[in-house]
Predict the 3D structure of the following.
Amino acid sequence: MNENDDPSRRYDPANRKTILIDGIPLPEMLDEQMIHDVVHGFYDKIRTDDLLGPIFNGVIDDWPTHLQKMCDFWSSGFLRTARYTGQPLQPHLIIPDIGEEHFRRWLTLFRATVHVVCPEPVAEIFIDRAIRIAHSFRLARAFHHGESTLGICPILEDSL
């Protein structure tokens, strides 16, 4: 049996309770299909991007597995499905020479994707979470490499 066929791992919108994301009710329109479309649309852009494509294509050998893992990550974070298990930061710590320009490009592509795929209230929630993730990763990378974190400010959406 495929893990996606396991009833305990499937998201059932009929049983959905109100989910709060940072104190804001999650719009009911955000579902597994929207998450799938965001993840796949975003990584389609990443894979062909001049700056990020070589990095991601160089470290990801199995794109279908990676895309499923990213769908599970966002589903767990927003829909509380608990499908994602892992440590998302760890793989990003070992990629050499990624800095603010890479995170800015990542956020720009992500923002463009969610604005195409999602209605505005959902796009805002996705972008806010992506900005927080990017900031956390930037701080962790600096700390991991023995660099000061004092000058690392969040990359805000209006600066993209």
User: Anything to note?
Assistant: The radius of gyration is 16 Å.
